[in-house]
């Protein structure tokens, strides 16, 4: 099923950044696409 924005991604993160103290980045420019029907497991 196509999404309203034309993407087949079920979940999409683009250029995500994370900082715990507001200064130092612990995650910088994270890009992640999970396609419809795709399973991700943490091992």
Would you write up a description of this structure?
This protein has 43 residues and is mostly beta strands. It is 0% helix and 51% strand. It has one domain. Strand 1 (9-19) and strand 2 form a beta hairpin.
Mean pLDDT: 82
Largest sheet report: 2 strands, antiparallel
Morphology call = elongated
**Helix-strand pattern, N to C?**
EE
User: What strand order characterises the main sheet?
Assistant: 1-2
How many discrete structural domains?
Answer: 1
Q: What quaternary form is this?
A: single chain
What is the structural class? mainly beta
Q: Outline of this structure?
A:
This protein is mainly β and 43 residues long.
Keywords:
single chain; 43 residues; mainly beta; two-stranded antiparallel ribbon; 2 strands; 0% helix
Topology summary:
Layout lengths: L8 E11 L5 E11 L8
